[in-house]
Give the backbone structure.
Amino acid sequence: MRDSGLAHLLAISGLHIGLVAGLIFFVVRLLLACIGPLALRYPIKKIAAGAAIAGAFAYLIVSGATIPTQWAFLMVAIVMAAVMLDRTAISLRLVALAAGIILILSPEALLSASFQISFAAVIALVAAYEYVAPRTANLRERGGILSSRLAMFVAATILTTVVASLATAPFAVYHFNRVALFGLLANMLAVPMMAMWIMPTGVLSMLLMAVGLESWGLMLMGWGLEAVLAAAAFVADLPGAVALVPPMSGLALAGLVLGGLRLCLWRGRVRLLALPVLAVALMSSGFERSPDMLIDREARFFALKTGDGRVYMSPGRAGGFERDMWRRRLAASSTLSLPDGVSGNGLLGCDGAACIARFGARTVGVIYDAAATFDCRNVDHVVLLIRVSPIYCRWNRVLISTFHLWRDGAYSVRFADGEPVVQTVREERGDRPWSRLPPRKRQYLRTSPTSRP
């Protein structure tokens, strides 16, 4: 599902809440319209909108009320409230209102991937349909095959998938270092099945529970789920279905966000001024280099990326989640175990207790076993992943030790022009009141080796 670009179907968020609320709105309004006195005397559209809000809230509670589901419910509730107040149901003003409410309640959500991806897709889709809607209205008036409901549905599905994919791609690259290249094809196959078959049969099975016949509805729903899974497997197995990309800098992401907002929020031809901003941000995103070395805070495992693009990881099964994150961060489809001897490209050599890696003009020795017989004078920098006396290697050659890891957290090292550029968790986290060490520990740090050549 992830490799095909259909992982959004698994998260109970906008699609599910929207389908449930839309189905309830349609059914309630249809039933009320069948009752003449009610349809003539009361605003059945507003009553259906209120029922949709109540049904969406019930679905929110039943689904566990996760953060993405809360955001989706808030969006649906605002849209339905706009219907009840005779205002435009979907507009950028309502999107801004929903985002403002969420950020007031949870300001930290601004930095989360789910918030960024969700609202990037919503803003882009609303702006796109505000631009397209008047033009499609003229197309309907002309008639013909292009104005048929089927053609409009196919065109809307394609437009929605393309716009949402382009809007969320920068955030997917920044947070996950991966892009599903055939997401359009997968969504063309799966989204109509989800909207027109799976969700309605799911609601049908719930209604049939009252008479003990829910198995019929669940059987029909299962057929739809099998079709979606088959479509996901087909697309994920296509050659080049997933592209792993190097990390994007925060500055490049900020440029893409700024350009995207200008493109969506400005009106008229002036919005075209956003295109140069987007072009510059896209070009700058390719300048970020992935790290050459990553080391876990507990010194349990490490990763090395040699000059030919191969990624080696230390043996063991510890840190499975971190290893997977590192593999994505290094844009590696697979990783290799440390070689027993010199690797074929001659850039890495190991003996089961230590490794010597070459990064450009610099050599780095990584010692991860006390049994290592290692001469520190043969390398430019030393990484000590075992607790040894400083006499083992002079501190002017030690780039990272277990003390540094204890103090600064996990390390990322990149060799630029032969010199190591180090990033640590402590530096990225910054000096915050909740992250400061007690006075006694700070005094210990001042009297301990802190140099990092």
About this structure: The first strand starts at residue 178 and ends at 180.
